[in-house]
Structure formats: C-alpha cells, structure tokens
Amino acid sequence: MATSESLNIHDFGTAIDKKKIRVQCNFCAKVVSGFFRLKCHLGGVRKDVVPCEKVPENVKESFFYMLQERKRENLSNEVGKLCQPDLPGKRNWCPAPNVVKQFKCEPSQTAGYGSKKQLELDSEAEDNVAEHIPVPNKRLDSKITIDGDASAWQAKKNIGRFFYETGIDFSAANSPSFKRMLNETLGNDQEIPTFQELKGWILQDEMKEMQEYVKSIRHSWATTGCSILLDGWVNEKGQYLVSFVVECPEGPIYLHSADVSAIINNVGALQLLLDRVLEEVGIENVVQIVACSATGWMRTVGKKFMEKHKAVFWSVSTSHCIELILEKIVTLDGIRGIVDKAKIITKFIYRHGEILKLMRNHTQSYDLIKPSKVKFAVPFLTLENIVSEKENLKSMFMSSEWKTSVWASTPEGVTVAHLIEDLAFWTGAEITMKATVPLLRVLCLVAEADKPQVGYIYETMDQAKETIKEGFKNKKSQYIAFWKIIDGIWDTHLHSPLHAAGYYLNPSLFYSTDFYSDPEVAFGLLCCIIRMVPNHHIQELISVQLDEYRHARGAYKEGRAIDKRTSIPPAQWWSVYGKQHPELQKFAIRILSQTCDGALRYGLKRSLAEKLLMKGRNHVEQQRLNDLAYVHYNMHLQNRKRGVKSGVVAEEIDPMDDWVVDRALETLPRNGGSEWTEADCFEATENVE
Question: Which pLDDT value is given to residue 120?
Fold first, then answer.
C-alpha cells in the first residue's frame, strides 16, 4: 500500500480554474470544491462528499488514513489536551461545550485556493473535519474573476480561443518567445494563460459558449430540417474514421467523430451507429444523409439505410460525383494521357527559375497554375490555362531566348518543346476542355455557394450537359460518350428524389420559360411527398395546394411574389409567399433548405479527430480532448458561416506540392545552367499563391 507521505493530491486531480476553486478527479471526473475535498472524495470518509467509485483501493486506503491522522492532529491542537489521558480504551475528546471554534488551515491545504480562509469546527460533530467553504460551480464571468480585472479575464479567453481555433499544442503557452511576443505587443503587464488554465476553466468556458451557439442552431431544425454529412477517411495506421457534421441554413455544426475500423465489415453495427446519430439529431429533423464516397462501407450501409429509413434520403456528395465523372473522362481515347503531358510541361517550367521567368515574359506574368479549394480540380484548371496560353507558349519555345538557353538541349527540354509543337496534344487538350470545363463550373458553383443548392443541382447538371453538347457543335458522335459517363454517375450515385422535387419547387426555375417537367421530375416530387409526409390527409392537401402553385394562383400571382422569384433564395420565397398553404410551405422549405455537397467542402483538419480517436487515455484526458475537438471544429464551421477564413485549415490546395515541384529544391539544374535558388523558389510560390 502506498504510504500517505508518498501521495501528492495534485497527482490525482486537475484544477479547472485559476484559483483551484474547482478540482476534477482524474479517476471519475467528478468536480469538487478544492483539493481538500478531493482527498475526502478519494478517501471516502466524508458524509457530504460523494466517495469515488473508481479510485484504486490502495490510494483510497492511503487518503483515508491520511485524513484520520489529520483529524486527530487538528482536534488535538484545538483542545490542547485530553480530559482523561490515562483512561484506557477509546479516547474521549472534551472540547468546551456549545462553543464553535475557528482556526486557520495549514498553508499546504490553502495553497490550492489562492488565499487562506477561516474554517469552522463544530464541537458537537466529531465526523466533521475542517473543510474549505464551498464555492458554487458557475461560469467565471464577473469582473472579480481574475484579480478584479475583467479585461485580463477577457484577454486570457481571447488567447485561449486562438489556441482552440488553430489547434496549437497548449505547451506553446510556456514558450518564452510566445510570452515575449504578447508582452511586446500588449504590454508587460499582460497576463498570459497557463497550460493548466488552457486545459481548465478557459476551455470549459468556451465549451459552454459553443454549446449555446449549437443550441441556437438546433432550434431551427424543426422548421428547415437538416442534412447529416459524413466525412470518412483511412488514416496512416489503416483505421477507418468518420466525422459527423450537421448542415442547415443557419450554419453547419460538428457532432463528433468515430472509429469504425472494428465494425467496417459489419453492416448491422454500422447501421446502429447511424441510428444513434439520427437519434442524437432527432430523426424527425433529418431530411437526408450525404456521404463523401460512393464506394466502400458508405455504399454498403447506404443501401441498407434506405431500406430501413424511408423518410430520410441517402445521397452522395456532388463534388465527389463530379470527381468520379472526371476520372472516367480522362480514360477515354483521345484524352488519355493529356493531363499527364500537361503536368510534364508545368513541372519543367516551374522547376527552373530561368524558364519560369521566360514563360512569364511571354504570358505577361500570367501563371499556368492556380490554387484551388478542390485538389482534384487543379490538373484540369491548369490544363485550361495552358490551352488559353497556347500561342504564347508556342512563341516562347520558338524564341531566341529559349533556343540559346542551356535547357533547350537537355532531354527534358527537348521533350517539352516537342509537346508544345505536337498538334495531337493540343487537339486532345481542347477536347478535354470542352468536356470538363462545364463540370468544373458546376463544381465551383457547389463548393463556393453560400446557400443551399438542392433546388438548383438538377438544372445545373442539365445545363452542363447542354454546354458540352454545344461545345461539340451538337454532333452526337462526339458528345455522347461524355453524356453516358455523366448519366451513369448521376443515375447510380448522385441523383436523389430531393433534387427533382427541389427543381420543381424552385420558383425561379419552375416559372421560367424553359422549365421541363419530365417523368423523372414528377416521380421525384411524388416520392418526396410520400416519404416525407406520413399523414395521408396532409399528402392530399399538398397535392391540392401544388395545383395552386402550378397555376400561380392566389398569393403566388401577386406582383412582389413574381418579382422575388429570382432575387431571393427559394426557401425564403416560400417562407414569405407560401403562408396561404402551410402544408405545402413546410414541405417546400424543408426540401429547399438542404445542401447537395458533403463535409469535405469545409476542410476540417482530420489530425485532431485522429488524435481524439486514439486509445489509452484516462477518462479525464479523453473528455478534455472531446471538448477541445468540439470547440475547435465548431469554431472553424462558425467562421466559415460568417465568411471568415480561419487560416489554419487550408482554404486552397497548394499546387506546388503535388502538381509541380516534387522535391524541386533537391533537383539542381544540369549542364552548367543557372541554379534554382531559394529566392527563385520563394518568388514562384508567391506568384502561384
């Protein structure tokens, strides 16, 4: 058994505020008022402190005997002597009757509180050992929180937010350079939060504020409905991980993350996981689940999910589906290899400072490579830029500067020069652009949209197909292969009845001259009515009200309702002008308030979720990391909703990583050419970004 002398109470609890008024047990996470009461909690000797149920027996015994010994010492010091010191058997204490004694705690017991406090001992209750005055467990939001200075309190919270938002390790708070930076910026009297404060009261305060923010968004779900977005990936250790984000017009929120490695082949267990998420969100609020992948466990569980939950739709992220379409397009004859050849050209140009400057001289400082929020779009956007600069690139490789450069005679220089002169390359590049640029425009529209897209995606994809058709001058033999690829992904993965219903209920499209209600649209609308509205009477009401909407009668034909069809979001239009038909109004708002893209558009940093899902922590540390992840991810989503770039999660993919450089600084020029200097690299990166 550990002796009482060998135990340090600070090893068994964590202060969660500055003055150590509240302390959390490391075994069961219970919060008590001070380290003394933590001893009582661990030792199990107090009637007014709940004993810890998870403390090891040897630790419990040690604190029990420690407190018993302390009780005897305190009472002995107070009374001074025994009434009958020679009496055998149980010792009888004789304090003065009806007198309440007061004494000061030893410094070792008051250090955790920040100041010494008077404690009372009731002479009539032997079991009541000296204790600190309890402090209510409330939020620290008054001016007396930190040395009477509210501004210092707020400053510490702001610094804490910086740590939580960026995901920087708390130990950075102990860095001399960090302290120097703040002192020189804010003044030497600036109080900097400690490592323990960042883990303690500041994090708890931020957690409470974030919970209030999330609660305010949750209230809107009953009206607008919501979509659950799945962000799944496999980490370096081969673990299958997934994060859950809930999307609605009021803003996205992060729920939690899960490790599904152990159940990856168990469809029933995966289904149970999704059922728990539905229960957490409220199945009556969920309109759809949007998966980030059309393959693997998401595809398997998606099929089972739709069989079980008829009222909730399952779809795949639009961005991912467009990625699948582009992957198939580049495998077609005449296009295969074009993207790789474009990569050879850009790598050669951007690896060598002399060639890069020559290219910019001929393109009027125009760069071929542009950053993008979507990584898989970079090759096609770059190819589009190469095609647009076709004549300038040809002129560059015909110039005397190129012909007299040391690179013109190198094998890679010769290869690139031949590519620039290769008619087959330019023909294939132009065909690729005709087929892919319309899809890239859809991708940009969806990825950058600040409003729900379910009411537009049906028409947008149809317009992309028509643009491809026009690009090939309506020659079916030339565009039909691309249409088949698009239709295959659309029918198999992307299309949802919600998209068809959204197209029908979007007034800006429905009342346009080119609106076309084909059987797919009619079926999608009917499917949504049946699955989303279980009450048969309300289904009939909606059918009747749809006839009023179809013929623009009543409020739908008023001047303002007509004027606002294209100037405000469709869900808002229904909220304002659909009041005469509340059943149809509610139905339309829930559909038109949904997204059609997945969680990847928010760029949540996965490393924190991976750390969160590692095993081996005690309960207290795990809960703290849960809180940190919850605050971090929701801060990021909150910033995105407000249009603020956090700067800690990459808003754009740096093409220099995968598309251009490939360890360029380690690949020095050959044949005596000018070296690729650090300054050149910096200049290239600056211009690309």
Answer: 35
Helix or strand run (H / E) with residue 103: strand 100-104
For residue 75, pLDDT over 90 is answered with no
- 206: its two tokens: 């931020």
Q: Is the pTM of this model over 0.85?
A: no
* Class of the CATH-defined domain 208-317+599-642: alpha beta
Q: Are 603 and 650 in contact (CB under 8 A)?
A: yes
421: its two tokens: 């002169």
Q: What share of the chain is helix, strand, coil (3-state, %, to 5)?
A: 60, 10, 35
pLDDT at 687 > cutoff 50: no
Q: Cβ-count burial of 65 within 10 angstroms (0-12 exposed, 13-18 middle, 19+ buried)?
A: middle
Phi-psi region of 276 (alpha: psi -120 to 50; beta: other; left: phi over 0): alpha
CA distances from residue 563 to 137, 152, 545, 560, 577 in whole angstroms, order as listed: 55, 52, 21, 5, 11
Quote the CA–CA distance of 440 and 437 in Å, as a whole number.
Answer: 5
Hey, what amino acid is at 122? D
Q: Tokens for 636?
A: 């990021």
In angstroms, rounded to a whole number, what is the distance separating the alpha carbons of residues 505 and 524?
11
pLDDT for position 9: 84
Question: Which two tokens mark 559?
Answer: 């001047």
Q: Are 355 and 407 in contact (CB under 8 A)?
A: yes
| For residue 63, pLDDT beyond 90 | no
**CA 281, CA 390: separation in Å to the nearest integer?**
53
193, 152 Cβ separation under 8 angstroms: no
Sheet holding 226-234, edge to edge: 253-259, 240-247, 226-234, 286-291, 313-316
Separation between Cα atoms, residue 42 and residue 150, nearest integer Å: 35
Amino acid at 306: M
CA distances from 378 to 360, 632, 652, 654, 687 (A): 20, 28, 10, 9, 16
Q: How far apart are CA 635 and CA 646, in angstroms?
A: 9
Contact call for residues 660 and 370 (beta carbons, < 8 A): no
Collect contacts of 619-627 with beta carbons under 8 A, ≥24 apart.
Answer: 619/26, 619/27, 619/28, 619/29, 619/54, 620/14, 620/24, 620/25, 620/26, 620/29, 623/29, 624/199, 624/203, 626/256, 627/203, 627/204, 627/207
Query: What's the chain's Rg over C-alpha atoms?
Result: 34
Dist. CA 74–CA 193, nearest whole Å: 36
Q: How confident is the model at residue 104 (pLDDT cuts 50, 70, 90)?
A: very low
Which is it for the CA torsion 339, 345, 347, 350, positive or negative? negative
Query: The tokens of 633 are what?
Result: 């991810």
Tokens describing residue 532: 């989303």
* Torsion of the alpha carbons at 626, 627, 628 and 631, rounded to the nearest 10: 120
Judged by DSSP in three states, 321 sits in helix
Helix (H) or strand (E) holding 676: none
Segment 499-511 mean pLDDT: 96
pLDDT of residue 469: 96
Smallest CA-to-CA distance from 407 within 657, 662, 658, 675 is with 675
Question: What's the sign of the alpha-carbon dihedral 567, 568, 574, 578?
Answer: negative
Q: 386, 348 in Cβ contact below 8 A?
A: no
- The residue ranges of every structural domain in the chain are 9-76, 208-317+599-642
How many other β-carbons are positioned within 10 Å of the β-carbon of residue 327? 12
User: Per-residue pLDDT averaged across 396-409, rounded?
Assistant: 93
Question: Parallel, antiparallel, or unpaired: how do β-strands 23-25 and 31-32 relate?
Answer: antiparallel
Q: Residue 493 carries which DSSP code? A: I
**Contact predicate 579/555, CB 8 Å:** yes
Sheet holding 13-15, edge to edge: 13-15, 23-25, 31-32
